[in-house]
Amino acid sequence: MKLELRGITKRFGSLVANDRISLTVEPGEIHALLGENGAGKSTLMNVLYGLYRADEGEILLDDEVQHFSGPGDAMAAGIGMVHQHFMLIPVFTVAENVMLGNESTGFAGTLDLDAARARVKEISERFGFHVDPDALVEDLPVGVQQRVEIIKALSRDAELLVFDEPTAVLTPQETDELMEIMRQLREAGKAIVFITHKLREVRAVADKITVIRLGKVVGEAEPTASNAELAAMMVGRPVELVVHKGPPKLGEEVFVVKDLRVVNATGHVQVDGISFSIRAGEVLAVAGVQGNGQTELTEAILGLQDHVTGSVRLDGKELLGRSVRQVLDAGVGFIPEDRQEDGLVGNMTIAENLMLNRSFHLPFVRRGSLQIDKLRAFAQEKLQQYDVRARDIDTACGNLSGGNQQKVVVARELSRDLRLLVAAQPTRGVDVGSIEFIHKQVVATRDSGVPVLVVSTELDEVVALADRIMVLYRGRVVGIVPGDTPREQLGLMMTGERPKDLEGDVA
Amino acid sequence: MNDAVTNEQAPAPAEKESGGQPPEPGKGHSLMRQIVAGDAFAGVLAVVLAVLVGSVMVAATDDTVRETAGYVFARPSDFFSAVWDAVWGAYTALFRGAVYNNLVSDFATQIRPLTETLKFAAPLILAGLGVGLGFRAGLFNIGGRGQMLLAGAAAGYVGINFDLPIAIHLPLAILVGTVVGAFWAAIAGVLKARTGAHEVIVTIMLNYVAYYLLFYALSKEGLLQAPGSANPKSLPMKESAVLPDILGDRFNLHLGFLIALVAVAFAWWLLNRSALGYRIRAVGENPSAARSAGIDVGRTWITVMLIAGALVGLAGVNQVLGTVPDGVTLDLDAGIGFDAITVALLGRSRPLGILAAGLLFGAFKAGGFSMQAAEGIPVDIVLVVQSLIVLFIAAPPLVRAIFRLPAKEAK
After folding, report:
1. What pLDDT, in 10s, does the model give residues A364-390?
2. Calpha distance A269→A263 (Å, rounded)
3. Superkingdom, according to UniProt (chain A) (predicted)?
4. Residues of A with CB below 8 A from B33's CB?
């Protein structure tokens, strides 16, 4: 099925989210829609899916103009959407989820579960999905849940599949598997729209690339285009994709972790005897697939975990057993991995969020009273310095884009006198322009002589920032290797395999 | 919140994509957030709607209206004028009872209803502030009743049994009552902080505990029961422990209203200008971010419950030492502990909003009696209107649909 969008315009008040966007997707083609967060990609797809009505322009399927008044119409016309946040019911089985909204019923309204099961099996076998129709969705890994979403779309005979940021939640392996699935779907003659802001993925699978910036199509590109060219189109200016950093000026070993063990509430060992140290002026990056103990490691350092043994020393002082506030006051800056949950108070303003970890003493609090003038001046300054794009310092953080939210967190953490910076997933869900900015800040912190611990599941980021790399697998250290270790070896280590030629125990 | 319509402030198209995931409310926090973030306009509309529905109730319960309804098709004008008379009569009586009585000649009597309103408003404002403060920290304090009962009983005990000059006696009685209220509420805070026990269940149960403790004290001579009496009632307060009238003997308005105003100012400063209030708001909006930023969430909860209990306790003290100084009884709370929840909701948990809501509800109370006296309309109608206000506030989509306001969610 061929999709054609002609001059789609969608306005929200004075804001033009989509400005005369036209594009054509042929059957058997993977068409990537590339753009930063907030460029208008999702709005466009919501128009296509009938969730929004376009103010101008038309949607054509196989050269026929369509008028969708809701997702139901879009589905009936053969459009399937794989949402970024899965629309699945966790306590239902795969088959139940697939039939949901499209139930075939037998006598007196009994569900025909067998038909749904058979359908799941058939699609699953055809594309090699390996999905058990009777498994509960909540028991499935994220990558498989996504396949259930795809099966759901295919079971309704979708000819055009829209993937909205599908890799945001996937591990590198799962991403590779998804790419393979997309290729198979293309071979089967489906038309695919692939929305993303990740350059590597686009170049790996796309046949055609349309770049959107500020609601407009700024150009088309071939998959052979270089990363730098694509990034420049996306951001509207040349972007440094490589982090420029000089050789580290190493100081003392100021941050030392020994035999750190973290047990969670249900008694499972999450971090199992980790030891490492970071010198002043050095970045140690923690690599590993999500869920191998990274979260618990950073939280244990901060004092956010309850059952921790071992030793965490900063400047010779023990941090374990201290309260979060004491750890922060010891000079630890913390960028949490989930900024919405742990980093920011969404309903509070930018200014208020900038003092979140300094609500006890000067400069923002004096004898129990807020020093509002000081806070406002400080916020104003940081807004400029960290290039936070917001109307003013009174804007609620929840209304900012991901990149700007993260800049607020980074501004807050880096404006104190730090003795250690712990940055967990510092650029997750952040646009290319902001990634560049945040990486520069991390390197600047390192160069000012602060030890930095970066945790990232994106190998690109690990390689870009690290002076040394520590690979975690199931809560244990696989090895600590130099920053220039080849990706292939790191990838192997992330599966738990320790290379034989790895010298020493701790590099 | 997360749709593009409300995002005009961002310079670039600010629709949320992968990075800015919709701010997913923490489990169980969405209701709280809705309560705190509800907009003032919706509150006004809720009041308007409730008054309209109240009109229907007034009309439906009016005898003349029912009579004329029998021949509404023959002489519709009779019916409509009867409806008008009933509704107009009801609300003017309410106004005369609550604000200004134009039917009497003497100025002092004319404005007497207003002072009655202020008198009824004082405990509602105090307790409303206590409950609202809890809301801001993410806590549902349903224990207003128990906190009022024990605080009132403690203040009463001091007021009855001590012989001191007024300059010491009155402040001491107020202080003792306030402290008891604070600690009674703090039990729920401590249990939540230490064990995770839900404050709703704990405060409800503590209401029963407080009630029966007071029942025991009131039926035990030597504690609170008046000597030689079999009724669960104490002796009246000593003169030196009674909140003085502030407008002279002709009015019942006593010092409690000024205490309520001071409490509003204090709560405003606390929430908007103090570091503690900042932490309270952070904990209420996003406890996990507060925790990650070094704020001790449990301690904040305990502190909030202490302050909330003190404020609610003051409402109890206001009753015992001011409004009904002729003795501690089991119903000294007069339902204020629960009305406070309504007041806090209507006031959107903001001190000035609570002040306004408390005044409105005080007016309902003062006017309700005169409505009944003047027009024979059951006072229950006023209670129905009050309840409807809460109902409409609790269902913003309903109000929005009725007034065809733009929906908050994208279609």
Report:
1. 888 888 888 888 899 989 888 888 887
2. 4
3. Bacteria
4. 347
Is it the case that residue B215 has pLDDT exceeding 50?
Answer: yes
The 3-state DSSP class for residue A376 equals: helix
> What DSSP state is assigned to residue B225?
B
Query: Distance between alpha carbon A377 and the CA centroid of its chain, in Å?
Result: 32
Give helix B40-61 / helix B380-394 axis angle, nearest 10°: 150
Q: Give B150's DSSP letter.
A: H
User: Which residues in chain B have their CB less than 8 angstroms from residue A347's CB?
Assistant: 33, 37, 285-286
* A317-318 and A332-335 beta bridge pairing: unpaired
**DSSP character for B281?**
H
Compare all CA atoms of chain A with the CA of B270 and give the residue at the minimum distance.
A369
Cα of A113 to nearest chain B Cα, Å: 32
What does the pLDDT look like over A310-348, one tens digit per residue?
999 998 899 898 999 999 999 999 999 888 888 899 889
CB contact under 8 A, B292 and A391: no
Evaluate whether A411 touches A351 at the Cβ level (below 8 Å).
no
pTM score: 0.78
- Give yes or no: residues A265 and A141 share one domain: no
Q: Which of A324, A366, A387, A432 to mutate to test the interface with B (most CBs of B within 10 A)?
A: A324
Pairwise pLDDT comparison (B146 vs A155), residue with the higher score: B146
User: How many CB atoms are closer than 10 A to CB A321?
Assistant: 10
Same domain, residue pair A197 and A280 = no
The domain of A223 spans 3-235
ipTM of the complex in this document: 0.73
CATH code, domain with A289: 3.40.50.300
Fold of B32-402: ABC transporter involved in vitamin B12 uptake, BtuC (1.10.3470)
ω into B378 cis (within 30 of 0): no
Residue A283 distance to chain B (closest CA, Å): 22
